[in-house]
Amino acid sequence: MYIPTANIGESLEKGRLTIAVIGLGRIGLPTAVSFAEAGAKVIGIDINAEVVSGINVGRSRFTDEPGLNDRLRKVVTNGKLKASTRIEDMAGADAIIVAVPTPVDDRKTPDYSYIKSACENISRQFKGGSLIIIESTVGPGTVEGIIVPILEAGSGMRAGKDFGVASCPERADPGKIMRDMVNVPRIIGGVDGRSADVAAALYEKVLGTKAVKVSNPKTANAAKLMENIFRDVNIALANEFALLYEKLGIDSMEVINACATKYNFVPHYPGAGVGGPCLPSNSYYLISEGVKVGNIPYLVRFAREINDRMPDHVVTLVEEALNEVKKTVKGSRISVLGLSYKPNIKDLQLTPVERICSELKEMGASCAIFDPYCIGETAFGFRVEDDLRSAVKGADCILIGTAHDEFRKLDLGMLARLSNSPAAIVDARHVVDPRRARENGFFYRGVGRI
Amino acid sequence: MYIPTANIGESLEKGRLTIAVIGLGRIGLPTAVSFAEAGAKVIGIDINAEVVSGINVGRSRFTDEPGLNDRLRKVVTNGKLKASTRIEDMAGADAIIVAVPTPVDDRKTPDYSYIKSACENISRQFKGGSLIIIESTVGPGTVEGIIVPILEAGSGMRAGKDFGVASCPERADPGKIMRDMVNVPRIIGGVDGRSADVAAALYEKVLGTKAVKVSNPKTANAAKLMENIFRDVNIALANEFALLYEKLGIDSMEVINACATKYNFVPHYPGAGVGGPCLPSNSYYLISEGVKVGNIPYLVRFAREINDRMPDHVVTLVEEALNEVKKTVKGSRISVLGLSYKPNIKDLQLTPVERICSELKEMGASCAIFDPYCIGETAFGFRVEDDLRSAVKGADCILIGTAHDEFRKLDLGMLARLSNSPAAIVDARHVVDPRRARENGFFYRGVGRI
Q1: Range(s) within chain A of domains with CATH label 1.10.1040.10
Q2: What is the pLDDT along chain B (450 residues), one digit of tens a residue?
Q3: Contacts with A299 from chain B: Cβ below 8 Å
Q4: B215: which DSSP letter?
Q5: How far, rounded to the nearest angstrom, does the alpha carbon of residue A216 sit from its chain's CA centroid?
Q6: DSSP structural state of residue A127
Q7: Which of A51, A315, B273, B282 ranks highest by number of CB atoms within 10 Å?
Q8: CATH architecture of the region B309-446
Q9: Separation between Cα atoms, residue B321 and residue B317, nearest integer Å
Q10: Are B160 and B191 in contact (CB under 8 A)?
């Protein structure tokens, strides 16, 4: 039963394996492409018809993932990858990779509705002997307690006996997915040893990366959460320090860069908060499991609160900076540069810049927003300006929301000429040199800076 | 004025510079030795007469610092280093390095009495043109707000004009002081540029390490605190995860080691808590400055609480483990292996093992304590056993308190034969393999382990 591990390489190369990938987002699509390149027949399933038809003509939404589009076009052209909205098309797959989103709802409770629904659909389609691999991030115990029961109930088969289940959480960083997929080892926990062995053999063969096998799915899911929560907590710590340093008249960047010269210190930087599909929600998957066993991780919870409140602090800096040039937020034109939650990608999911723009608008500012990745689109109800100059023209305050490379070499003289002097710069991402901003006539404020 | 930076190398080599080091502890003594080796005439001052007389015959307390004793003996023999209890003996020094302890009091408030007293004494002795270097860890603003005023009041001179002041916080790790002193760059902030330049030139010349100059003493002190608080918070995070994983039936070590395969994750491990001169107190120096400006770093504060409560958790594990073998803490013999707050050094300062032993004694256990670094001594009111065998003999529970290398290769078969079967092992430092402990008949519990 299950796919034999011994000849996986040969089976792949000879096109004998069919792989279904459920969810063709930033993780699912590159995964589907990689399996197709390795020789598998890949069927990708997504509920979004527009996404599916785009993929079937070799076009992906993720133009910010270097190399993805070219590689996608090839496997679509040679017929190795097909996308579909119909779950029935996955019937007969030897392995089914689930990569659907697992967000949190408005009350910060994990919303497993997509993955539950996907697994219900799968449960009525998959064949005995196949392996179901969960890449979606879920709380430890969710695969054992929710997903396996759904798969067993729908199929009438037994996990670990009639079919395999393994967690293999994705660990790739948006904007660097193609690179991380081959470089970062995969953590794999199966409901039984064979599930883990087959999943490990597949990923090692297809991606050429190392597989780190752990005892069970919950251990793999705990590891995935822990590495993201490590980042969330350390960014919160940097933010907490930044708020204090502002009051103590100490420059955070100078301090952090000095600390970074010690071997056991790892720099994290303060800013406008965190966003994207992982950091704002992963902690809640763990907290939710903690609540169930009466052991809430308060440090993790508190870190979330700190990061979630950083947009408010940025708005306060805007108010203070405008006040210094004798202007109010109401009636001011504020140029917001950078919308994405992280640099050099196009991803507005839970970006802290959205909350900043909403609050400024609420206070009566007029926002001109600009992001080189979103030109001509609409974001947060604003039309994105066509270029930097039109965004900055007449600005009373220029606010840096994302550290895109484009903003690291801003021509401050030009910004000064275009803006409505006296004007302010508020830098939430430490890309502008405070001294140079002041030399160019701006009143400067930055998160954690003096 | 001050020592000229241009010929510092020559001045040192020709024995033209006199350096005073105030406080001959784990940091002060190696510093004094290094300056003496570089050619300076060094006078070391300490209030402890026993410490001073030991040093003057070439003997240091820090036998756990590889190389220190040999190097001390040489510079004492060649007359380059002399120790004294008399502060007057430092008169005429070109540079005065202050390395006295800065602990916190029972109410977790920084206790600057030693450094204030040292600086009052210095203020009446030092000559114009000299440079005073603060290596002791202090809160940001303490040098500017407390130390400089003391030095100016006592001397009638002006800092930054008649004499120099720089912060150059030590960044060395106990047990690796000699190595870290030459490898870890020094962060230096002066009250003026010249103070920083001279301090940087001295340390670069004497230690061969890089100097990282920052804007002022408070920035240097903030960096020193931040790098230790980073560790304290991350250890607290590991502990918080460990407590939750115990309840979820997940092994922390398996999770952490899996996470460590990602490039941006840095492993920290759960345990019995933290100790020593830095981690239990450094956070409070920052919190204390935060309180003054109405901006308390709660994440930092909360992390302290988590780490401080870990000894209680270890005691709970002992209770639970003994319960499983149908024994009570009262009347049990508990063998405590490892007393130091960290591995492979002799340092009982604020070690969490002390609280564990006190609580167990309070509950009616009889503790047999053992640490290879403290044989024949008395610790926490107990006599340290002469060897491992006598410590373990008749034990109902063996508790690992410190991950000394000696304990990483324990003969579990021998321990089983010596202990009072049925016996338990409680491992607070993940040095014992749970499976092997169970194979040898022990009931096993470990912090964060299943």
Answers
A1: 225-303
A2: 578 888 888 999 999 999 999 999 999 999 999 999 999 999 999 999 999 999 999 999 999 999 999 999 999 999 999 999 999 999 899 999 999 999 999 999 999 999 999 999 999 999 999 999 999 999 999 999 999 999 999 999 999 999 999 999 999 999 999 999 999 999 999 999 999 999 999 999 999 999 999 999 999 999 999 999 999 999 999 999 999 999 999 999 999 999 999 999 999 999 999 999 999 999 999 999 999 999 999 999 999 999 999 999 999 999 999 999 999 999 999 999 999 999 999 999 999 999 999 999 999 999 999 999 999 999 999 999 999 999 999 999 999 999 999 999 999 999 999 999 999 999 999 999 999 999 999 999 999 999
A3: 233, 236-237, 240, 299, 302-303, 306
A4: S
A5: 25
A6: P
A7: B273
A8: 3-Layer(aba) Sandwich (3.40)
A9: 6
A10: yes
Q: Which residues of A touch B210 (CB under 8 A)?
A: 261
Burial of A232 (0-12, 13-18, 19+ CB in 10 A): buried
3-state secondary structure of B148: helix
Question: Is it true that domain A225-303 has CATH number 1.10.1040.10?
Answer: yes
CA angle centred on B412, ends B406 and B417, rounded to 5°: 120
Comparing CB atoms, the residue among A171, A234, A254 nearest residue B214 is A254
Active site residue A262: no
Cβ burial B88-97 (10 Å sphere, 16+ → b, else e): ebbeebbbbb
DSSP B192-204: SHHHHHHHHHHHH
Which residue has tokens 């759904």?
A150
The answer to whether the pTM exceeds 0.80 is: yes
- What CATH fold (topology level) applies to the domain A8-215? Rossmann fold (3.40.50)
Alpha helices by DSSP H, listed for B325-424, are 352-362, 388-392, 412-418
Both tokens assigned to A218? 């919950």
The catalytically annotated residue of B41, B80, B168, B278 is B278
| Structure tokens that stand for B237 in this block | 């995070």
Q: Is B210 on the interface with A (CB under 8 A)?
A: yes
Cite the residue boundaries of each domain of chain B with CATH code 3.40.50.720: 8-215, 309-446
Helix H or strand E encompassing A33? helix A28-37
* Catalytic site includes residue A213: no
Could you tell me the two tokens for B89?
């003996």
CA distance B222 to chain A (A): 7
**Per-residue tokens: A289:** 């499991």
List the single residue in A233, A248, A290 with the smallest CB-CB distance to B289.
Answer: A248
Where do the CATH 3.40.50.720 domains begin and end in chain A?
8-215
